[in-house]
Amino acid sequence: MVRPRMFLAMRWVLLAACLGALAGPAQVRAQSASVLGDWVEPTGSVLHIGRCGSDVCLWIVSLSKHAKAQTDIHNPDPSLRSRALCGLKIGSGFILRDATHAADGTLYDPKTGKTYHGALTAEGEELDLRGYVGIPLFGRSQTWTRQASPVKGCTAAPGD
Question: Which one of 5, 41, 62, 84 has the fewest CB atoms closer than 10 angstroms to its CB?
């Protein structure tokens, strides 16, 4: 015969085990969320966010079939306008605050030829990229999604 106290204790153990099983997948997802990795921007190009020394940098690793140019035609320096966008480092100097946040870097937008301050925040399979002038309030954000499958990359490898 099961005593009432024993029954109550068994219920609490069972409840704790069920809650742990439900929370487990959420914890795994939260731990795997990171700004590092391959991300698809809204037009379909894929960018790699990875370590470059002690900082975090961004490189274009695959251009969208909708890309209007294959070279850096909007660069303010005319001598750089013929360089390939494939493999181009467009972000540098980011400091990884924790796995899901990087800040204090600079972002180069090859669509406009302008450079901005930036911040990166990953939440699940989405990355919020904030580019701004001066302070984050004066900027705009773009949401990227994590690249799920292997990337057929550019002919140029990411590098400095």
Answer: 5
